[in-house]
Write a structure and sequence with these properties.
Elements: H1 3-16, H2 31-37, H3 39-73, H4 78-94, H5 96-118, H6 141-164, H7 167-170, H8 176-198, H9 207-225, H10 233-245, H11 248-253, H12 267-270, H13 274-290, H14 294-305, H15 314-329, H16 351-357, H17 363-373, H18 377-386, H19 388-393, H20 397-418, E1 421-423, H21 424-431, H22 436-448, E2 454-457, E3 462-465, H23 476-505, H24 508-531
Antiparallel strand pairs: 1-3, 2-3
Helix pairs in contact: 1-3, 1-4, 2-3, 3-5, 3-8, 4-5, 4-6, 5-6, 5-8, 6-8, 6-9, 8-9, 8-10, 9-10, 10-13, 13-14, 13-15, 14-15, 15-17, 15-20, 17-18, 18-20, 20-22, 21-22
Length: 532
């Protein structure tokens, strides 16, 4: 029996073992007590079963982690590594669930080792987490070759396992402990596949194969909850892979950028973690930026920035920086508003993020926000030059460059409010651009962007500003589509509120609390009346 087969048997025993000698699928051993004592006994028994499932899942995860950790700690060569993967394949053929568990354990170990060796987190220095290469382990070339071979082997097997998810059928009739463990392992394997493919360590795995595997994993996660709108860990994984491949059409086709407020959250059923939510908001915002949907991008980044938190997250920091720039680029945000209280973070932002926004580490973006609000090209260029290294290191140099065009476009709007006809030479002097040709190009861009409504005569060198300088009115189809999407989101939110209200109304704890509060209020009023 190989090492993988022994680990598989131990993993299976850990899931099927019971601390009380009963299976979670067997009849309740205290059925008579339940009938006698009612719902309280039933609740206690359900809690006992849940605790059993949690213990079994934890023991099974320890077995898988130990199996993978021992393999990674061995000092065998690339051929030995390939032999280990072949043993794992053979053991997985008889129990696909164990194969997914081993892949999930590998992903957790690799992410843990990577964070420990080079300090990387879910987002790297430019906020993408998509560095094509990572620091290699200390050692000779043979160790580095094995490192890369293991990553390639993991990506290839994770793609096949998640694409088929045949093991999902193997656990349909299994005890709930095994189903819970399988859902967690699928989520961890999906996270690992997304991260290492985006880092360029999944050579041989095409984008289409990786995308299809993550889509199958996403369907499985949503099928576990029975809710087709539930947020899953795979949402962030898919957005990350699609952004890395610049496949923005796929993002729209799969509905990954639908209104986030109409999505249900079932952390227990989908194994969603706080980091998954933050990353989905980050990569969703990046996708909106790529499509020049700056207002939508600002909303997605804001969701990550205002997420409840007790400590500062590196993802929230990256989103805060991009939120400020995206909001300044949005046509719906007036530049004057950036210098007023409207530019402040929402009041429900966590204290950790609020403190960071007021710290010196955020000065580069706070000063840029003030410079943009002043509509001064000289002030913008001074701040951009002073903090150029910071913007480049954060991966925001491109957004900062776009802000210059926004300032110039706003100055062009100021010309339209003051003049009806103006020579291009005079416009160049007022706008502080080198030549009349540059002023013509700038005014054309401002007209295309909807900032001004103007007619430019290139022969005579004159620009005429029309009275209707507003942005073109949206068509009836655009208004109808926007209204339909907002109504759908409102209906979904209303249904969710009604469901929660009905659940609370049936909760014994809530009813008892309300009765006690009513009694306290009545007693207080009685005391006040007696004293008066």
């Amino acid at each position: 029996m190989t090492t993988a087969e022994r680990a598989r048997d131990a993993w299976r025993d850990a899931l099927e073992a019971s601390t009380t000698g009963t299976s979670s699928s067997s009849p309740s051993p205290i059925a008579g007590v339940e009938r006698a004592r009612g719902r309280r006994a039933t609740s206690q028994h359900q809690n006992h079963q849940h605790n059993q499932r949690t213990e079994r899942t934890a023991r099974a995860r320890e077995v898988a982690n130990d199996f993978v950790s021992r393999a990674l700690d061995r000092s065998f060569d690339v051929d030995g590594s390939r032999a280990w993967w072949r043993e794992l394949d053979e053991a997985s053929e008889r129990d696909a669930g164990f194969g997914v568990a081993a892949l999930a354990a590998f992903a957790r170990a690799r992410r843990r080792d990577d964070a420990g060796t080079n300090g990387r987190s879910d987002v790297d220095e430019d906020g993408t987490g998509d560095a094509e290469t990572v620091d290699e382990p200390m050692g000779d070339a043979e160790a580095c070759a094995r490192w890369e071979a293991d990553d390639k082997s993991f990506c290839a097997r994770a793609t096949r396992a998640l694409a088929s998810l045949a093991s999902a059928r193997d656990v349909d009739g299994a005890p709930s402990a095994r189903r819970d463990a399988f859902r967690r392992d699928v989520a961890d394997a999906s996270r690992g596949l997304s991260e290492w493919w985006c880092r360029g360590r999944g050579s041989g795995v095409t984008y289409e194969a990786c995308r299809d595997a993550l889509m199958a994993s996403r369907r499985f996660a949503r099928g576990s909850t029975g809710d087709g709108r539930a947020a899953t860990p795979q949402d962030a994984c898919l957005l990350r892979v699609a952004c890395r491949a610049k496949a923005y059409d796929d993002i729209d086709a799969f509905g990954l950028l639908d209104d986030a407020r109409s999505v249900e959250i079932d952390a227990r059923g989908t194994c969603l973690e706080a980091t998954d939510f933050l990353l989905s908001r980050y990569y969703g915002g990046r996708a909106h930026l790529a499509r020049k949907r700056y207002d939508d991008a600002a909303k997605w980044f804001r969701d990550a920035v205002t997420a409840p938190a007790n400590a500062l997250s590196a993802i929230a920091v990256v989103c805060l920086k991009k939120y400020v720039l995206a909001r300044a680029l949005s046509e719906k945000t007036s530049l004057a508003a950036l210098s007023r209280a409207e530019s402040e973070l929402p009041p429900y932002t966590s204290a950790a993020v609020t403190r960071y926004a007021a710290s010196r580490d955020f000065d580069a973006y706070a000063e840029m926000q003030t410079a943009i609000a002043s509509r001064s090209v000289d002030e913008y260029e001074r701040v951009a030059e002073a903090h150029a290294e910071t913007y480049a290191a954060d991966g925001n140099a491109g957004l900062v460059d776009l802000l210059r065009e926004r300032v110039l476009a706003e100055r062009a709007r100021g010309l339209a409010e003051t003049y009806s006809t103006l020579r291009l030479e005079d416009a160049a002097r007022i706008l502080r651009v080198p030549s009349a040709r540059d002023a013509e190009i700038l005014l054309c861009r401002a007209a295309l962007g909807g900032y001004v409504n103007a007619v430019i005569d290139g022969v005579d060198g004159i620009v005429r500003f029309l009275e209707d300088d507003a942005v073109d009115a949206p068509t009836d189809a655009d208004v109808a589509d926007a209204l339909r999407r907002r109504l759908e989101a409102a209906h979904a939110l209303d249904a969710r509120v009604r469901e929660e209200n009905a659940r609370l109304a049936k909760s014994r704890k809530y009813v008892t609390h309300e009765v006690n509060e009513t009694r306290k209020t009545a007693a207080a009023q009685t005391r006040m009346e007696s004293q008066s």
